[in-house]
Amino acid sequence: MKKIIALALIFGLFSCQKKEEKPKEEKCAPGTEKKLEMYQMSEMAALMEQMYVDNQRVKENIKKGEPIGKFPEHYMKIYSAKFTDETDNDSFFKEKADEYIAAQRLLYADTDSKNATKNFNAAVDACITCHESKCGGPIQRIKKLYIKE
Question: Residue 122: CB partners within 8 Å, gap ≥ 6?
Answer without folding.
Answer: 103, 106, 107
